[in-house]
Amino acid sequence: MISTTHKKYFLTFCITTLIGALIYFSFLDDTSDTLLTNNHEANSANVIPAFHQETNNIGKIKSENTCVENPKTSLMNSNEFTIIKDARKNILELKEMLKANPKELQSILNGNAPPSKSDIYTLALFEIAASCLKLSLPMEVYSINQETKYVQFTSSQCNVFPIETLSKPLSFLTKEISKGSTLAKTFYLLNALDLAPIYKKMHSAEYDAYSEEILRNAEQYGFEAAKDGAVEANYVMSRAYRLGEFGKKDISMAVSYLIPLAKHNKNQEITETFNKLNSQLSKLEQQKASDFALGCKNQKDNLILANPFN
After folding, report:
1. Domain shared by 108 and 238, yes or no
2. Which DSSP string corresponds to 204-273?
3. Quick one: DSSP state of residue 32?
């Protein structure tokens, strides 16, 4: 005869087994649903059509989830502008005025520029100092005959600048850059790429190091200016990566900086350059270029925007 104690043990065993079975089948159902959902999503991703263009094969971009969310890397800006072109006339006029008025030039160097126009005055001073630097260089380092974009100053007029400023005129731009000036950042990018090879030709350990420093700065400031919407920064950054002006060629980055240009400025030259460079990349590299340009905010949107000619 089964004792009361044995009955209790048997009843406890049955209840425990029943609960375990219920948990198991409940988990199995949830897992099946998850697997079905994942398979459906995977199948949906596989039927996304590859983007193409009737007259230009820009390469197919895979919809793999290789993108890491980082809006700070997005180069797309709805308010793109030609910042250098818009400022050029004012800078030239100011340089002409300062050339004709040495006392005014000295006053500006002493920090008396109008606060509302500090960026334009700073860029004008930079261009004058850069022109003076080139004027002082030996012919084998730089030929002044190449000079086309600066208002010419004489050696005596250049003497108003401190020697350390003349040797490294890009230092003029750092204060405006610290204020967040997109114009100053774009100017730094353009002119660092121009000046870095000149410093290299001086065959000095100091200037070799400085050349590398300004190229690193230019790469960072160029990224920031392009992100702000400066069209010229996009052009120059793409060219610099294509030619290896920052140290080595990076076709993927060159393509990244072309995507915003192609989206906002559809013309044959940009289209042809994009197609040529993009065809040199693997599918994974094409996705990387798209992710960097578009900020990875939405993978599906990236696929649409990655072909900027649609």
Report:
1. yes
2. -HHHHHHHHHHHHHHHHHHHHHHHHTBHHHHHHHHHHHHHTTTSS--HHHHHHHHHHHHHHS--HHHHHH
3. H
Eight-class DSSP state of 297: S
CA-CA-CA-CA torsion for 73, 74, 79, 80, nearest 10 degrees? 80
My answer on whether 138 and 32 are in the same domain is no
Tokens coding 10: 């048997």
Q: What is the pLDDT of residues 272-300, one digit of tens each?
A: 888 899 999 999 998 888 888 887 654 44
Say yes or no: 116 and 175 in one domain.
Answer: yes
What is the model's pLDDT at position 86?
A: 79
Same domain? For 14 and 150 the reply is no
- CB under 8 A, 24+ apart: contacts of 276-279: 277/242, 277/251, 278/58, 278/59, 279/57, 279/58, 279/59
State which of 249, 275, 302 marks the end of a domain.
Answer: 249
Task: Say whether both 90 and 203 belong to one domain.
Answer: yes
**CB of 255 closer than 8 Å to CB of 281:** yes
Cβ-based neighbours of 284, under 8 Å, separated by 6 or more: 62, 64, 66
SS3 81: strand
Per-state percent for the chain, helix, strand, coil, to nearest 5: 70, 0, 30
| Residues 128, 23 share a domain | no
> Would the pTM of this model clear 0.85, i.e. be above it?
no
The range of the structural domain enclosing residue 245 comes to 71-249
**Count: domains in the chain:** 2
Strands (E) across the chain are located at none
Q: If we measure between CA atoms, which residue out of 180, 166, 165 comes closest to residue 221?
A: 180
pLDDT tens figures, 241-263: 999 999 999 999 999 999 888 87
Does residue 125 sit in the same domain as residue 26?
Answer: no
Residues 6+ apart with CB under 8 A from 205: none
Domain boundary among 198, 227, 249: 249
Cβ neighbours of 76 (radius 10 Å): 18
